[in-house]
Design a protein that fits this description.
Length: 318
């Protein structure tokens, strides 16, 4: 439980820092740079994270186990989860942060625990109670309600909303697949994360950036003076790496639904860090906080079996 909450806290830090990076001048210099910023920043973000994880595994003497995990029968599922959770989910997340703002983007993308519940019902045949469907609908209504929040720095609501749903489905599918893979003792948390970030970075570097013509901008970030942009992205990637380690560990220990429910506490932390670090008080509007509360609370209940929860509490009291 503590690891799940720590995952949310560190991801909130990543959210705010990445939002700062996306607002730096190299990503705002031209219209093309603005359009490419979410994709280039995500490539750099996941590449840095993959490097951090490789160093982490090397220092801990895990490289033999890491390469061994690549030969297991679950490796193809790890690659699939990486491709969906990385290029699809992470791109959607960055789009949400870029076009909705750090705090609202984080809240909007928090729909993924509810989506994960639906995906588990469809693909894993897990039972979903009637009230979980109601909470899912209320969660989605909360996301739409954010469009009417006053005085927010929203660049493009519809692109941000598209990103939020890409993120929700990408991360929801990823969590369900990972829950299956992490049941294998040979696939440890640190191995799965290293594979995930490496696959994601490779797909961005080999497929997405060439298609979008984003390599020129990427190279220019290293050859031209960009100030603190690269270090800022690296700091965001480090926070994300720590968050993923906690999150994957929570998935392996608690299961996908509980881990996702704990992880979305990052929405509340992101709003707090936005106020403290960015001095952005616009997120404290009553309607915005109401919608955020609806998304967080209903998202958690949409991923929780209340019957099991109350049964455990009653047994504990006895």
């Amino acid at each position: 439980m503590i690891r799940g909450i720590l995952a949310g806290m560190t991801w909130a830090v990543e959210t705010v820092v990445l939002g700062i990076a996306l607002g730096m001048s190299p990503f705002l210099a031209t219209e093309q740079a603005i359009l490419l910023a979410p994709f280039v920043s995500t490539f750099l973000h996941d590449a840095c994270s993959a490097l951090f994880m490789f160093i982490y595994n090397a220092v801990r003497g895990n490289l033999k186990g890491l390469f061994g995990a690549c030969r297991t029968r679950d490796f193809k599922w790890l690659v699939l989860a990486s491709a969906i959770g990385g290029p699809i989910g992470m791109t959607g997340y960055v789009l949400a942060v870029n076009y909705l703002g750090a705090s609202v983007g984080a809240v909007a993308s928090a729909v993924y625990p509810a989506i994960g519940t639906v995906l588990a019902y469809v693909f894993l045949k897990e039972k979903v109670k009637w009230y979980q469907w109601i909470f899912l609908a209320m969660t989605l209504l909360g996301v739409f309600g954010l469009s009417y929040s006053p005085d927010l720095n929203v660049k493009n609501f519809w692109l941000g909303l598209l990103g939020a749903f890409m993120c929700a489905f990408g991360w929801g599918i990823e969590a369900v697949i990972l829950a299956k893979c992490l049941k294998d003792d040979s696939v440890k948390t640190e191995y799965a994360l290293n594979i995930r970030q490496t696959v994601s970075a490779l797909i961005y570097g080999v497929v997405i950036l060439p298609i979008l013509g984003g390599w020129d901008l990427t190279i220019s970030l290293f050859t031209e003076g960009t100030g603190m942009l690269i270090p800022t992205v690296a700091i965001a990637a480090l926070a994300a790496t720590v968050s993923y380690l906690f999150y994957y560990s929570a998935i392996g220990r608690l299961g996908a639904s509980k881990a996702m429910a704990l992880n979305i506490t990052y929405t509340a932390w992101a709003i707090l860090f936005t106020v403290i670090i960015l001095r952005d008080l616009s997120v404290l509007k009553p309607f915005t906080l109401l919608c955020a509360g609806v998304i967080v609370v209903c998202g958690i209940f949409a991923a929780t079996d209340l019957k099991v929860l109350f049964a455990k509490r009653s047994k504990h009291k006895e």
